[in-house]
Design a protein that fits this description.
The chain has 2 helices and 4 strands. The protein is an alpha+beta fold.
């Protein structure tokens, strides 16, 4: 075996090992990002569900007052607050807003939107609920 051939084989082996390592780093990085995103998305859905449950409670307390609500609200503290500015829910990175629309008859449509920033992107988790007077 020639020493030149052995050197070429060594360089090729190192190149293959480097490619495998780069691929493993990329897969690990994507996995970490996906896990972080899934955690935040799950928390966002929980924050949105809290908003929907609060709305259900408001409906149960006084349907007539609930039915007269219309427009956009900030639900930072689960109170009927103006939509702008809407600071994050305490202890989180999420903003929770509500658009509520009386749909005629005895029902109200509510869309709770939870937003958060991840890097340079803004993500949302929406929950729509229709409330009836029963």
């Amino acid at each position: 075996m020639r020493s030149g051939q052995m050197l070429v084989e060594l360089v090729l082996a190192i190149a293959v090992a480097i490619l495998v390592l780069v691929a493993l780093v990329q897969v690990t990085t994507r996995s970490i990002f996906s896990t972080r995103f899934a955690r935040k998305q799950t928390k966002a859905v929980t924050v949105g569900t809290q908003g929907v449950e609060w709305l259900r409670e408001q409906r149960n307390i006084d349907w007539n007052a609930f039915y007269t609500k219309s427009g956009s609200y900030c639900l930072q503290t689960l109170a009927w607050s103006p939509p702008v500015p809407c600071p994050p829910v305490t202890g989180t990175v999420f903003t929770r807003t509500l658009v509520i629309t009386p749909a005629g008859g005895n029902n109200v449509t509510a869309v709770v939107t939870v937003k958060w920033d991840e890097g340079s992107k803004t993500y949302t988790a929406n929950q729509t609920a229709v409330f009836y007077n029963y």
